[in-house]
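Recall the central idea of this unit: under ordinary conditions, the amino acid sequence of a chain determines the structure it adopts. In this exercise we apply that idea directly, starting from the sequence alone.
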Amino acid sequence: MGIKYLARKNASVVALLGAGWQAGAQLMAAVCARQVGEARVYSPTVLRRDNFARQMAEKLKVSIKPVASAREAVEGADIVLSATNSLTPVLNGAWLAPGAHMSVIATPEPDPATYQRAGLIVLTTRSHLEIGDRRDDVPPSLEGKIALKKDHGQVKERLPRLDEIPGLPEIIAGLRPGRKSDQEITLHINNTFALQFPAVGMSVVEAARRLGLGQEIPTDWLLQDVHT
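Accordingly, the structure predicted from this sequence is:
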């Protein structure tokens, strides 16, 4: 949905950072939303990016090239999709072409320059901002503070405060403006509660219990307190 409403209409070159199932799902969405003519994928694991390129090219009938660096993937791309589990930046804002659209799963993925260059920053949902139980999916520079864009020491414009960032549903409904021009860089922070997963999972569990299938396992097996 972010690509449909935020990317340029003529966007055709996609960069993928990450070669897992989430990257595959994002690429499939991009192909549905735009006429993708070329995709470039980077993963630090050569075998993963090579396999991803081969399998997804066959599935989607799109030219997909595995590349040796994130920069090689991103430079010149119209749509940049980041699907990693990195806790440090994987995307350098200096690589972005004018008019590029980015979608990130985790806010550490873009570096500060990316946030600085984005003319429009959009959240998938703002609902958690109202209930106040999750604040880790927006960068500290936007966390209720005023961050400034500077050029040679002169303040040019400020980044939006957290409460000023539109949610994607507001843009879809026409309540907030979207992309202003083909030169504007847009950033979609794909923050969600991922409620679809427990909703579907609970339905499966209930069906299995009715049919007497499966085996209960300890909840502790599914918990972790470190990032892997």
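Helices lie at 2-6, 21-33, 46-60, 70-74, 112-117, 127-131, 168-172, 196-211.
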